[in-house]
Amino acid sequence: MSALMSFARGIDRITTFIGRAVAWLVLVVVLVSAGNAVIRKIFDISSNAWLELQWYLFGAIFMLAAAWTLQRNEHIRVDIVSSLLSKRTRDWIDFLGHLVILLPFVTLMVYLLWPYVLHSYEINEYSPNAGGLIVWPAKALLLAGFALLFLQAISELIKRAAVLFAGYPDETPAGAGHAEAAELATLAPDEQQGGTPTPTGANGAPDSEAPRR
Fold first, then answer.
1. Which of 73, 115, 138, 158 has the fewest CB atoms within 10 Å around its CB?
2. pTM (2 decimals)?
3. What is the pLDDT of residue 194?
């Protein structure tokens, strides 16, 4: 299991490096979008290439950062339900979800996308729009994104199995939204609504002698 955990941590390092690098593309997208808008308004000049570049960069951010999102535990889930479950139950849901749903899905996508991207590369496919960009790199982003997600799914499956079956400590980061939901679930109803907690006596009953505001 230690060898598998080392393998999983190696995948996590690769995923984190790519995710942090791709995050800088958000700034590039903003600059390209703003520059394109300014040039179009001031000089009445526009280009399909710049518009398509924005789409390609957005696709790169979405696809290449998906694995990092999974590794950071920031993916979408029903927090109001998840926070009510025990830690072990959540671990089993994650383990089975990765094994039965995520891994088969990303495997299928990689299998289907490989010939799709290869064909586009072989014919040197270009955008049908006037002045548009070459297309196959954008399609390759789909394949790269699902390949990274496949590797990260393997890592998550290993880590969840280590927690469930080998007694390893859970190294999964607590996503911001999930942490807030779990904390909220531990509060009393009046505290969840932002009110002042009801004063209680030693036995937990309301304390009629407590000071009133």
1. 115
2. 0.74
3. 52
